Each structure stands twice: as C-alpha cells, then as structure tokens.
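INFO  loader      accepted 1 record
INFO  loader      residues=253
INFO  predictor   begin
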Amino acid sequence: MKRRLIILLGLLIIASLALSACAPAGAPSAPAAAEEAAAPAAEQPSAGLGDLPRNETLIADILTGRVGSPSNFNVWVGWKWQDRGIQNLAFEPLWSVDFATGEIIPGLAAGDPDYNEDFTALTIPLREGVLWSDGEPFTAADVVFTVETLKENEGFNANSFFVENVKSVSAVDDYTVAFELNIPNSRFHTTFLDRWGAVWIMPKHIWESVDDLVNFEFNPIVGTGPYKLHSYDPSGFWTIWERRADWDKARPA
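INFO  predictor   done
INFO  writer      dumping tokens
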C-alpha cells in the first residue's frame, strides 16, 4: 500500500520559495556549469525530511507559520499549532460542521446527542470499530476519562467549562456516554463540535499513567484521525504525517 504522506510547512519556508519565484524574468541566468553543480542538491529533499516519494506526498502550508513548541502535542493546555495537522489529520472530533452547507457531520459520534426535556442530561452514541493510531480501541471510557481529567485539573483550557456544566459523566456501555449537567444547556454537546477547534478526546490508555498531566508533551501523538505522526522538525519548520492503513476499515463502504 502506498504511504501517502502529507508535509505541513511553516510560512517562513513558503515565503522563501515565493520570493525566489518572484525574481525578475529578465535577470541573467547563472552559467551552465553552476547550474549543473547545483542540480544534485536541488533533487534532494529538504534537510531532515528524508527520502519521501514525491508522487505520494502533499506539501501544504501551516497557516500560523513556524511551530514554537514542535515537540509538544498537548493541545489541552494551549494552542500547540493545531493547524500543523493535529486538528485535521491526527484527531477526529465527535462532530464537525460543513460551513458551506451547515450540515453537522458525525465523526467519533454515531449520531446526534439525545437530551432530556429540560436539557439537564444527555447521552451521546459513539461509533464502533474505531482504533487509536497505536491500535487500541476507542470507547466511551476515553470520553469519560477526558471529561473527568479536564474537570479535575485547573491547568487545562476547558477546566472551567466542565466544572461549571458537568455534574457527572459515565459510560452506559462501551459506545454510549451519559452526562448529567449542573444547569440546563441545550448546546452542551457543541464543545465537542469542531468549528475550528473543539475539545478533543484523550486516549485513556496513555494518559491514565501520566503523573504531570499539564506538562506532558503527548509525544508521539496518538489520535483517531486518518493520519499518524511520521516525524517533525525540531526547529518547527515542518511536520510530516503518514496515512493510516487501518483508518477507514470501520466506515461505511
């Protein structure tokens, strides 16, 4: 199976390429001997990127540029440059929205949330057969662990939201999560709806053994999305993601 890689490049690299491409058309050409000498270097991938198959590799820009903390993938404590592929390649939300149509698209959720009449409780069905990128199954236990962990630790971004809203969270079974809320909230589930960021689910089997949750770098990152981490530049200029061979096996044909 082809590897199908995606490289996310920082703006500084893209900008340098754009500037070189904007050189005046009438500028004199370098001597032929110099061109021949430079050719072998031009055929090599950028330093550190390795021998990547170009016909199987998509190169894209990182909207926010060079990554400031390239080794840190703990998005629950800060931005961590999610647009370098974390949000749209490594992770899946429970739901996402198509901005062109307004359609809500289930991801890790198997359908819509089911609220009670006064919006103080709800259940969320989860999609079966989903695997984390390390091969472990995704279940309701991961969702429960995520909510309880974020609620119990003030260092996480979503802490105050879950403290204010969640009375309890539990797994009805492996693929159903139940919430009791402190106050009526008909939009509670939208905290898991990706509209350019959402509360992402933590893999319990990794995080439950971590002592310092806030400072944990979550490296290598493990997600349920279609790509897994291949490598990254310690200087923050690029991140490479490799397509998972097992990602779509649980999806409808």
